[in-house]
Design brief:
Elements lengths: L26 E5 L4 E8 L2 E8 L6 E7 L8 E6 L6 E7 L2 E7 L9 E7 L8 E6 L5 E7 L2 E7 L10 E6 L7 E7 L4 E8 L2 E8 L6 E7 L8 E6 L5 E7 L2 E8 L7 E5 L2
Antiparallel strand pairs: 1-2, 1-20, 2-3, 4-5, 5-6, 6-7, 8-9, 9-10, 10-11, 12-13, 13-14, 14-15, 16-17, 17-18, 18-19
């Protein structure tokens, strides 16, 4: 049933999450108090430098990092959580934002917030995971670029009100998208695997301790599997956990940021 096609064909490169054309996953920081945002440029697991982004008022929060514009560059997904409820995408040329583009349709119900992004229907385009603060309902916006094409309820077995959806990735290396969930008070984490919008399994993930919060899911050692960046909310320490099939391979320290107003918000 194969049909030959003329031309020089090759497999496109796999872009690590949140690479911003650096060839490596970055770390996205947001100071919700001051409106400052920054990108940590990484070389593998090594910190290279911090790049400041333009000021954004504190009513806007970062919901995720993905290529919504289809130009091969990472975008930042924002949500105006406090005033309008509108969503917007910052498109980038490398590390510099070049345009702010609306996400349609407008979601004005401010009970909904963005948890993360992920390709649930395997069409090569990022989708958006949302959670309702009032009802705890979870849904996936299947996206065609920046336009919603469908809304699908997402049932996460055993989801509790105090459990955060942190990020997504193929944690088990089997082609199934997984959501990383974390319970801050208990200091526990797990990954729920999905086929489409159907949960097909849940596996625990070890954590560094109760004082640590996961903030980003990226591929920092370029092995094709997601890693997790943790932040200690007391000491300001930051580490990358290099994972393989949900098992810790190595913990790599990053520079400490003692100012707790700064939080890791991506990639996710």
């Amino acid at each position: 049933g194969d049909v030959p096609r003329a031309g020089r064909w090759k497999t496109p490169p796999v872009l690590p999450p949140g690479d911003f054309q650096t060839g490596n996953s970055t770390v996205v920081w947001r100071n919700q108090t001051t409106g400052e945002t920054a990108l940590w440029v990484m070389q593998g697991t090594s910190f290279v430098r911090s790049e400041a982004l333009p000021f954004v008022e504190d009513c806007w929060v970062i919901g995720g990092t993905a290529d919504f514009t289809g130009d091969g560059a990472t975008d930042l997904l924002w949500r105006n959580q406090d005033i309008t409820g509108f969503d917007a995408v910052w498109s980038f040329a490398g590390l510099r934002p070049v345009a702010a583009l609306p996400v349609t349709p407008e979601q004005t119900d401010r009970n909904w917030f963005i948890s993360c992004t992920g390709d649930f229907n395997r069409d090569g385009q990022p989708d958006i995971v949302r959670r309702n603060l009032a009802t705890d309902a979870v849904e996936v916006w299947l996206m065609n670029g920046r336009t919603r094409s469908a809304v699908i309820p997402l049932v996460i077995p055993g989801l509790t009100a105090d459990e955060r959806i942190v990020g997504s990735g193929d944690f088990e290396g089997n082609g199934q998208l997984g959501l990383l969930l974390h319970r801050p008070a208990a200091g526990t984490a797990r990954v729920v695997a999905f086929l489409g919008a159907t949960a097909v399994g849940s596996r625990p993930l070890a954590t560094p301790g109760v004082e640590w919060r996961p903030g980003a899911v990226g591929d920092y050692n370029r092995d094709g599997q997601p890693d997790v960046v943790w932040r200690n909310e007391r000491s300001g320490q930051n580490v990358i956990w290099l994972l393989r099939n949900l098992s810790l391979v190595q913990s790599v320290g990053l520079p400490a940021v003692t100012d707790q107003r700064w939080q890791i918000v991506g990639p996710r």
